[in-house]
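As a warm-up, study this chain.
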Amino acid sequence: MLDMQVLEEAFSEVMGAINDLSTYRQDALPRLDEQIDRLAALSQQGKASIERLQEGSESQPKDDRTSS
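Now compare it with the structure written out below.
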């Protein structure tokens, strides 16, 4: 037969773990959102740099680009 005290303690531990997970997720989401925003800004900077490089390459005469 099941010991109700042991069963209640196990159930309480499971509920505590679920609550801990929920709290972790709630705390992590704002940090993840901030990191995503920072990565998006870095991506935009990288894109702008690549575009400048491409524009510089396109503005050079073809003979100058192949002599390096």
